[in-house]
Amino acid sequence: MGAPPPAQGLITTIWIAFNILLYTSDDFASKISLPLSKNYSFYTIPVYCILTYLPYWYSVLTIQNASKDRWDNANPKSTKHIDSVQKSVSSETFGRYERGKAAHNNGLENFPLLIVAVVMGNMAHLSFPMLNGMFGAFVLLRVAYTVAYIKISGVNASYLRSMMWMFSVSILMYITIRSAQVLAKSSVL
User: Fold this and answer.
1) Does residue 36 contact residue 133 with C-beta atoms inside 8 Å?
2) I need a labelling partner for 75 at 20 to 30 A (CA). Which of 15, 109, 124, 172 fits?
3) Of 152, 155, 133, nearest to 144 (Cα)?
4) Nearest Cα to 101, choosing from 122, 77, 124?
5) CA-to-CA distance for 11 and 17, rounded, in angstroms?
6) Which of 59, 42, 189, 187 has its CA nearest to residue 117?
7) Nearest Cα residue to 142 out of 170, 118, 116, 117
8) pTM metric for this prediction
9) How far apart, in whole angstroms, are the C-alpha atoms of residue 103 and residue 162?
10) Residue pair 138/172 in contact by the 8 Å Cβ criterion
11) φ, ψ (nearest 5 deg) of residue 72
């Protein structure tokens, strides 16, 4: 049957890593010798905020450099301006610009779910190693996702990017649902 294609191998690796974190996260810190016994989960919010704006800044700088500073900062979303810029740069450069903006928008769309997961995980007093491990995996997946979003232009490879998104959102959904289960059994609310 042969070896799986590289994308399938990466998806399998991500799935295995996610399951390892999911089922062994309470003693995750001791296994990797990091000081995860302290709560670093709230740092995920500013890290993610920076990660969300990096593709936007990348997009603007890409277009400014390629179009010899034709960027209109006073009205950057004007259709007339965007059409003008598109005509002055290569289709590959404009594609990277559009994908960078799309990665930025996707980050903003996922921000509320991240905040809910961080707050609920802490309200439910989930273990610090679990929160740190899960949010660490989330950030790593989002870094890979963001780079893939900007770099991947082919349809087939874009499914890999979609899988990274799905796994990152699954982490947040798991924390949110697990927290809801704990909070439903407690008298915290």
Assistant:
1) yes
2) 109
3) 152
4) 77
5) 10
6) 42
7) 170
8) 0.76
9) 12
10) yes
11) -100, 95
